[in-house]
Design a protein that fits this description.
This protein has 188 residues and is α+β, with helices and mostly antiparallel strands. It has one domain. It has seven helices and eleven strands. The strands form four sheets. The protein has a four-stranded antiparallel β-sheet, with helices on both faces. A three-stranded antiparallel β-sheet has the order 4-11-6, with no helix packed on it. A two-stranded antiparallel ribbon has the order 1-3.
Length: 188
């Protein structure tokens, strides 16, 4: 039984559940989820509180929030696109440069309340988001809300499918992103 628990990333998945960063989805839940293919969902606004969700000292940088995203009260899942903001020939980009390019692109950067709605209702997350990029786990970023930790560093939230479970984390904008780190946007 122990061998079964540690195989295929199950131990890491269990750790994520215990840390509150993943949820267990049973086979019966998956079957029920496959029967219903929601196309849109209602967004509960003002629900994401970084100090409660992530921890003490975390806050939202309001001037960095995409107001067009926070104005959305319903979202059609089929309209969400994933963009990397990599230019031709680029293999990676710093997070701050990516954010700058996203703002210049006029795409609507999806925010933390949308992230939270998907996290709480994982059956809504499109199956295609589980697919790897060049063999690497896909990390889907929600750049419409920029967060600050207690030291002042800037981060954005992301979701990823790993070891049969969804996980969430934050990523420091000073790090490098590649093709496996697209941003969830609505093309305007």
């Amino acid at each position: 039984m122990l061998k079964s628990l540690v195989s295929g990333g199950r131990l890491r998945a269990l750790k994520g559940v215990l840390e509150g960063n993943a949820q267990i989805v049973t086979t019966s839940t998956r079957v029920a989820q496959k029967k219903v293919e929601p196309k849109s969902f209602i967004i509960k606004r003002g629900d994401f509180n970084p100090a409660e969700f992530i921890g003490t000292g975390w806050s939202i940088i309001m001037k960095e929030t995409d107001a067009r995203s926070t104005a959305l009260i319903e979202l059609d899942l089929n309209k969400i696109q994933q963009v990397t903001m990599l230019k031709e020939g680029e293999l990676s980009i710093k997070g701050e440069e990516k954010l700058k390019r996203l703002k210049e692109s006029e795409n609507i950067r999806l925010d933390a309340d949308i992230f939270l709605a998907l996290w709480r209702n994982q059956y809504l997350i499109p199956e295609s988001w589980k697919q790897k990029v060049d063999g690497n786990t896909r990390y889907i970023f929600f750049d419409g809300t920029v967060l600050r930790d207690s030291v002042g560093y800037r981060y954005v939230l992301y979701l990823c499918w790993f070891g049969g479970a969804w996980y969430w984390r934050v990523r420091w904008l000073d790090l490098v992103w590649g093709a496996d780190g697209p941003s969830a946007v609505l093309v305007s």
